[in-house]
């Protein structure tokens, strides 16, 4: 969700810092989808996985068994200083095909706490992301570029991220589903410098970057050594028996010193599987 709205990041910062202007910085330097329930009716005859790697492999096989999937995305990010809060929310519907030449189409909108709404549309085709925000022209770049990759909400790609997390991934029963499995990785409160090399924290830092850039421009000069990670957590929930993804969640929170207090930045994004998707995803005419 991070680089999606640099303008939104500017709004968040302006709204909060303007509301607390008496402080000074003393820190020093919609297509219909096939219901998911019908897709989960066939139980696997294979033995139940045991390790995180086993569950990830089974999840990858299960997601590849359909031509594509539809996901419902909800996100929120905000900053708080001295009781003054500014936030933005985001909703979208994502269609994602599977296979070697997979493609993705996302259509949604963001809404600021002052009621300003902006539409957004994203395509990913042949490894290139195409993004349109509001009335601006389409822009595009390789999916390998974090500027574009961080704008794409793709639960299927989360399986690759969890492989990279390695032994940091824990396996537990999901409390919200009967027999579901939760794979998760988390970092508890710590100085940023103590945990910044963790992959999940690096992801969180990319999400923080647009807002932190705006804070720097507004006069917040706290060095990285004084920023704290309040929490970073990412999870994937798999359905019982089929091991298909039912939900993917990412959340993070940072504390940034300013004026003798902390600016708290937080973000929460949840992607839930709506059902299988059987259509193709292709760039429409005029998108370049």
Show unreliable segments. Answer: 27-32, 36-44
Binned, the helix content reads 10-25%
Structural class: alpha+beta
Give the end-to-end Cα distance, rounded to a whole number of Å.
Answer: 22 Å
Number of strands: 13
Whole-angstrom Rg:
20 Å
The overall pLDDT average reads 88
Q: Could you tell me the strand content as a percent range?
A: 35-45%
Organism: Streptomyces cyaneochromogenes
Protein name: Lipoprotein
Region (Disordered): 24-50
Describe the structure.
Residues 24-50 are annotated as: Disordered. This is Lipoprotein. The protein has 288 residues and is an alpha+beta fold. It has a domain at 52-91 and 154-275. 24% of the residues lie in helices and 39% in strands. A hairpin with a 5-residue loop joins strand 6 and strand 7. The model is unreliable at 27-32 and 36-44 (pLDDT under 50).
What would a concise description of this structure say?
The chain has helices spanning 6-19, 36-39, 52-64, 146-149, 155-165, 192-195, 199-217; strands at residues 34-35, 68-81, 84-97, 104-112, 117-125, 128-133, 139-142, 170-173, 181-187, 190-191, 228-238, 245-258, 261-276.
